[in-house]
Amino acid sequence: MSEKKYTASDNRYKDVVSYRHCGKSGLKLPLLSLGLWHNFGDVDSREEAIRMLRHAFDHGITHFDLANNYGTPFGSAERNFGNMMKSDFAPYRDELIISTKAGHEMWPGPYGDGGSRKYLMASIDQSLKRMQLDYVDIFYSHRYDPNTPLEETMGALSDIVKQGKALYVGISKYPEDKAREAYRLLKENGTPCLIYQGKYNMLAREVEYTAFPLAQKNGVGFIGFSPLAQGMLSDKYLNGIPENSRAALSHGFLQKNQITPEVVEKINRLNDIAGKRGQTLAQMALAWCFHQPAVNSVIVGASSAKQLQDNIDSLKNTEFTSEELWIIGEIAG
User: Fold this and answer.
1) Of 179, 112, 163, 166, which is closest to residue 138 (Cα–Cα)?
2) What is the DSSP string of 12-36?
3) Percentages helix, strand, coil for the chain, rounded to the nearest 5?
4) DSSP 132-167
5) Angle (CA) 293 283 247, round 5°
6) Pairwise CA distance, residues 289 & 13, whole Å
């Protein structure tokens, strides 16, 4: 498959994917962005990864979200994406938004983690080399580091933009007070924060009261990750925990003790509403994210082009009645 020359669809901007401005910037993001956290590493199928990237771009998904430690082993998602970029997407570079991040553990020793200038500067250079790019569109501080002065972290982000290695910068998962300070520092440095990345789904709505108002006040965009709550907002757990699911594993972010009888009851009630809307639970969960105008995009992960298409189909019906929103809120809490 990879030997066949890829040519993007002429109809790639005429499909169901649409775009929202990111905060008060001139940059538009697709409602759905493709995340490469899982399924793009060395242990995964290269053929399926290529199919997913091609399918995404052919359907108007122009934003690919990475981080330096994505893939197994660390760095392999960026490296594999770089090879696919070179073979398939090089002619379309100016039609793509490519983001990456640094902040979590990446290499051994005292300099391979956190928010220090040393780590961030090394990380962006390594990421660009792996992806065979001159620049990324968005570079994030992946998490707040309490052991590094915020002035140092934000100063490094600003310099990365001024050096031409990133067009914009963002922050991810920062506490509200630290995000407020980060926005101030970046603005003072002449490199305003473009975007905040945080967890958002029907079962995790804290950002509506913290990140959303603060981002809107500062003209910062918002992109949500985990819109399906690690798969809980899908049909996987309607009858408990299947053997091949994430929750059945002994490691990972979703644990068995999170799939309680109360959660199973909630997702079954939500599934009933989705059925009445003519959607799967996963499709409704994705569509629901966009009832908030503060949400510019959500990051979806997929294991196949078919699953990605199921996600894209969620955008065929993103309108909710006030009654539906109220009932969903009552069920999800």
Assistant:
1) 166
2) TTSSS--EEE-TTSS-EEESEEEE-
3) 45, 15, 40
4) T-S-EEEEEE-S--TTS-HHHHHHHHHHHHHTTSEE
5) 110
6) 22
Q: Distance between CA 159 and CA 68 in Å, rounded? A: 19
Considering only CA atoms, which of 141, 147, 56, 53 is closest in space to residue 104? 141
**Tokens 């963002």 -> residue:** 170
Q: With beta carbons less than 8 A apart as the criterion, state whether 271 and 298 touch.
A: no
Alpha carbon separation from 201 to 39, 62, 136, 195, 284 (Å, rounded): 22, 22, 27, 18, 11
* Burial (CB count within 10 angstroms: exposed 0-12, middle 13-18, buried 19+), residue 19: middle
| CA 48 to mean position of chain CA atoms | 19
Cβ(101)–Cβ(139) below 8 Å:
yes
What is the per-residue pLDDT across 151-201, written as a single tens digit (0 to 9) for each?
A: 999 999 999 999 999 999 999 999 999 999 999 999 999 999 999 999 999
CA 170 to CA 157: how far, in whole Å?
9
Cβ pair 245, 236 in contact under 8 A: yes
CB < 8 Å & 24+ apart, contacts of 317-320: 317/277, 317/278, 317/279, 317/283, 317/287, 318/31, 318/287, 318/290, 318/291, 320/287, 320/288, 320/291
Distance CA 299, CA 72 (A): 20
Nearest to 8, CA basis, from 80, 47, 56: 56
Res. 16: pLDDT tops 80: no
Question: Which residues make Cβ contacts (< 8 Å) with residue 283, sequence separation at least 6?
Answer: 274, 310, 311, 313, 314, 317
**Ordered structural domains, the chain, with CATH:** 19-233+286-319 (3.20.20.100)
Query: Using an 8 Å Cβ cutoff, are 36 and 64 in contact?
Result: yes
Angle at CA 42, nearest 5°, toward 140 and 231? 65
Residues 222/296, Cβ–Cβ less than 8 Å: yes
How far is C-alpha 169 from the chain's CA centre? 15
Q: Is the pLDDT of residue 60 over 60?
A: yes
